[in-house]
Structures are given as C-alpha cells and as structure tokens.
Amino acid sequence: MSSITIKEIAKALNVSISTVSKALNDSHEIGEKTKKRVLEYAEAHHYKPNLLAQNLKTGKSNTIGVILTSINNPFCSQIIEGIQQHALKVGFEVIFMQSRENPEIERSCIETLMQRGVDGLLISPVDETSNQKLLEDIHDHNFPVVIFDRIQHNLETFKIGVNNFQGAYLATKHLIDSGRTKIVNITASRFGLSGERFKGYHQALTDAGIAFDDQFHIQCNMQNQEVLDVELKNAITRLMSAENKPDAILGSSDTITVTLLGVLAELGYSVPDELAVIGFSNIDFARSLNPALSTIRQPALEIGDMAMEKLMKFIAKKNWHQVQIETTELDTILTFRKSSIQS
Amino acid sequence: MSSITIKEIAKALNVSISTVSKALNDSHEIGEKTKKRVLEYAEAHHYKPNLLAQNLKTGKSNTIGVILTSINNPFCSQIIEGIQQHALKVGFEVIFMQSRENPEIERSCIETLMQRGVDGLLISPVDETSNQKLLEDIHDHNFPVVIFDRIQHNLETFKIGVNNFQGAYLATKHLIDSGRTKIVNITASRFGLSGERFKGYHQALTDAGIAFDDQFHIQCNMQNQEVLDVELKNAITRLMSAENKPDAILGSSDTITVTLLGVLAELGYSVPDELAVIGFSNIDFARSLNPALSTIRQPALEIGDMAMEKLMKFIAKKNWHQVQIETTELDTILTFRKSSIQS
DNA sequence: TTGTAAGCGTTATCAA
DNA sequence: TTGATAACGCTTACAA
C-alpha cells in the first residue's frame, strides 16, 4: 500500500520525525503552528499511521479477538452484532475466528490471535475443558480472556451467558400449565449446554409431580440437516406409535426446533393440537413459521455487549488481576405463540 | 503476551540473532547442528514469531480482509465458510468486517484493513459505485481487490457471483411450465441484485407470451421482520382480493420467501394449491418448512472459494496487473419441492 | 557457516 | 519547543 509515512512528512516539512510523531499525537510539547502545519499536511496527503508499526512499538493494538464455534446461526450472528456495536463505541476493532467445535482449531485460533497482538480475547469454548491450560496460562500472563455463551468452561474469569436451566424450566412449566404432561425433550447429543437445559426440563417435571420417562429424552446427531431430518422423523414416528404418546415437545436448539416443525408437518401431526412445540431459538422469523413458533430466546445482543464490556474492564486496568470477576447468567426471553397454545 | 523472542533465543544459545532467524526460516546458510539446536530450543520454549514485526519487515501478512454487508444470513455464512476453507488450504488468515449496507462504514472497513496490512481484499460492495474511487485507487496501487456477490460494482477486477437473471428466469419458467400464469415477483426495495432477478422473471414471462402486470411486482421494505411481515400481509391481502388473482409467487430473497410462507399460512392460503411459491434462499432447512420450500439456491461455498482463488492469483504474481481478469457468474441451483408443485 | 548492521514505521527518552 | 537516537522483533544484504 502506498500511504505516506511520518518520515516523508518530516522531510517535506523540514522537521524531525519525532516532531511529526508528537504533532500527530497532539503532544503539548509541540508548538501550535508546527502542529497545524503537520496536521494539515498529513490530512492533505491522507496520512494513515501504519498500525503494525504502531502496535509493535506500543504493544497495544486496540483490537480484540473473538473465537466462536461457528458463525452460521442467528444466535451467533446476534452476539457478533452486540460485540461489534460495543467495539465501535470504545474504538476497538474485532477479529472473528471460528473453532468449528474443534479444540485443535480452537488452539490455533488462540495462538494466531495472540501473535497478531490482540489486546484481549472473547471466547465461546468448544467444551468445559478445551484448551484450559493454554487459556489459563495466557490469562495469568496479563492477557485478558472473557468467556461467553459456553460459560461452563473452567477458566476463572468473567463469564457471560444465559440461564439455560431457567429457560428450559419455564418453558416446560408453561407446557405443563397448558395441560401437557407427556413432554419430550430433544437435545443435541454433543453439546454441553443441552445438559443445563435438560436439567431445567427435568426439574420442572419433578416439581409438577410428573415422572420422567427416559423414552422422552431424545438425543440427536446434528452433523447435518439431512441426518437430523431422518433422526427426527424416526424419533417422532417411534414416539407417536408407542402406547404412551407424548403431547408436547421441548426443542433444545434452533436447528432442532425448526427442523422438527417441518418434520411434524410432513408426518401430518397437527401442532399444537396433537403436539405442542416450544424451543430454544433466536431466529427472526419464528412468528412466520407455520404455526408460529413459541420460543425461548437468548438475549444474544446483550451477551455480546456485556462480554465486550467485561473485557474492556480488564483491558482498562493496569493490574487487572485484582478485578472482581463474576459469572453473569442472563434471563432467557419466553414468547408463547401458536405452536404451544391450544387453539 | 510473553512469548519468547529470537533475541532471547540468540542469547541463550550464544549465537547471533540473524543465525537464529535464518535457522528458524530453515535457511541453507545455517549448519545442521546449529539449526537443530535453535529449532529445539524454540520448540521447547514455545517460540512464536511476532507477526506484527514479521509483517512490518516483510510487508506481507498472509492475511486477507473480507468485507461483506452483513454476516447475519445463511448465504453470507456459507460464503465465509468457503473463504475460510480455501484460506486454510493456502495458509492465509482472514479478517471479516461488516459494512452494514453503509458506504461510510464500508470505507472505514477498507481503511482499517489496509492499515492492518492485509495482503488483499475480498469485498461485496454496498452498491454499484460505493467507494469506487478508493477501491480503484488501492487496486491500482498494487493492492489486489476481488469482488464477490455484488458483481454489478464498477471496479475492474475479478468478480464472482451468481447468474441472478438466469436463476429467476428458470424459476419463473418452472412456474409457467407447471401451469401458472399469474406470477407475482416480490423483491426488496433497496438492493441492486433484485434488479437482475426481476429482469429474469420479466423475460420468462415475455418469452412465454404472458403480459407483465405491474401490480404483480411488489417491492418490500426490509427494514426489519415486523415491518416486512406487515407489508407482505397487506400485499397478499390486496392481491388476493383483486379480480385478477395471482396463482404463484417468486420471492427474491431468503427473508422475503420464508416470511411469505408464514404469512400465507396465517392468512389461510394453501400452498401450492392456491399459490405456488418459489424463492431465492440458502437456508438449510428449506425442506423442513411447511410446505417444503422450492428454492433457487446460490452456490455460496463455491463463491467464497473462487473469490479466494482469484485473489490468490493476484497475490501470487509479482506484477499482477497483467493478469487477465474476468467476471464469473455461477449457475444457481434450482430445487423444486412441494411449495411449487401441484399436489 | 556465522555474525554485523541496517531498516520496516512507529513511539519515547533525553538532550539541545 | 524541537531533534537525535534507541528501541519494538524481525529479515536480509553484506562482511567475516
């Protein structure tokens, strides 16, 4: 690239490099007239400081790194949005990387970001212990790390996520309150968060005096859309042909719930009459589905915003190891639409 | 961060800094035993080169910048995936930024990325002329830019997108071939791409000897889900209560089409019996919608992959201004499902 | 085969 | 108020 450098400005104006540097940084050491000359010349020639050089020198980059497992879903997009909005406000830039649910890739993301000299890390870790030693190491070495979404990770730092237990509990309670008693919970087979959600579901049943039938906990392979489709179809067919037929379903993820709705339509089951459906989902068009989908929504924008806020708290302090850390579990937002309300 | 530097390695091993540097870069100038000592020490102490310093020195960062208008939709996620997969193969890293359909923000993204020393730029521009001068300027100054998706932009360089005209043409033809003649096209009111899609639709009508009724071109405000929902509801109600009722709809974007399906269900119109529906969409669960949605799909992964490939072509050449540029319009993928096939 | 030294574009210390 | 100069961590002629 061909942006002008301070050296060239110095030469053109017949002043020293350091004078230019100071002038550009609005140092009080520099006289007003000189400052003005420099600033005007810089402006006129579209001077842009070379960030690499600046960062190399100062050790600060005003950039943070964000690692998430995947950006391919509305929940993540919304978190990213929240992070970026906050970053914009505080004048930071953001580099996103995807770990693809793979600890190896996650490690390489972390290392890359460090090498690039980011000032801090926001991460939604692959699992409870992924790269724990590495993260502890860098966090201890004066490099701030904040965890979002997957807050069950063991690193001791700020963590921002959602009260999954409560979300699932309230959704299940809603189903029970609407007269459903035979409630199925469909979760992914791999992800840790489903655990809390399952617990909430389970507790709601218990509190209502409903015995949990372990046939009613379905764990799906989420590898891809086709596999999921087949698994759901099989599961529903099996459940609905058993003697103890369910009358409601709680979906533990966006993909599961939306796909489920399609499967039920295809199999000819009416929602909510035969089966009420509610699920964790952050899609924008939940109300446009057929039927309009009842959702447990995560305040994704706020998660991103708060994660960024906590990270900035670290970055701002000189010795931030004294900062009082805490885990924040935001409330989910339940919206009851047609799919779970008896018509 | 506290990664060790070559200076420290040099001191520890009692060799010079340049020896270490050369050894790490596997230079032939360095003896095997020395090389081995250095490599082992580096390995043992987790040496990681400081990329900022490396980049500052070499002027190459092995990083490319990607600017897209928004990452909040499946099409973009898939493009990103394609870019990242290719980047991984060629050992490059990727920084993503969002322009949010705003030329000002776009400009700042471009500048930021340049300052960060990326080796090239992949951009899906806000509109035909957004930041054209700036882009031309940097592209001319030996900094490669490749355009993807929004290929109607005026910059002269490689462009990779989709044949929107053809996609819309074939989809419309499909509707006509299935016996529909009164076909509505719903487009967004703002985006340039809708233009080509409308033209394809229009041409298909013409070729089939069907007169275009301009009541049948609906332009929607896509500002947010609620607004769109209302606009669609009004449009459908109006259309279906007119004397010349439509019998099919072509949706020109993901959001429009999926939302439309919900609206039709809510208003009680049966798809495809009363209204056939087909639309541009890259959602994974099109087949899980109710009814399964016929789609014109863009090969997003391939777009990302090819865009990256073209950019690498530039980056690889010393004097790449001789490279023969071209615009690639990939074919869309039409999948006919229940929503457009008379049962 | 190894080392010296200059330089990438900045900032920062210390003299002038 | 300004200017040499060293330094950040690395690469690379060029010398030894």
UniProtKB/TrEMBL annotation, chains A, B:
Matching entries from InterPro entries are given as: HTH_LacI, LacI/GalR-like_sensor, Lambda_DNA-bd_dom_sf, Peripla_BP_I
- CDD domains noted in UniProt: HTH_LacI, PBP1_LacI_sugar_binding-like
Spell out the molecular function terms from Gene Ontology. DNA-binding transcription factor activity; transcription cis-regulatory region binding
Q: Which UniProt keywords apply?
A: DNA-binding, Transcription, Transcription regulation
Q: Where is the HTH lacI-type domain?
A: 4-58
Gene3D superfamilies reported for this sequence: 3.40.50.2300, lambda repressor-like DNA-binding domains (1.10.260.40)
Pfam families to which the protein is assigned, alphabetical: LacI (PF00356), Peripla_BP_3 (PF13377)
**PANTHER family, per database record:** LACI-RELATED TRANSCRIPTIONAL REPRESSOR, TRANSCRIPTION REGULATOR, MEMBER OF GALR FAMILY
| Protein name, as recorded | Transcriptional regulator, LacI family
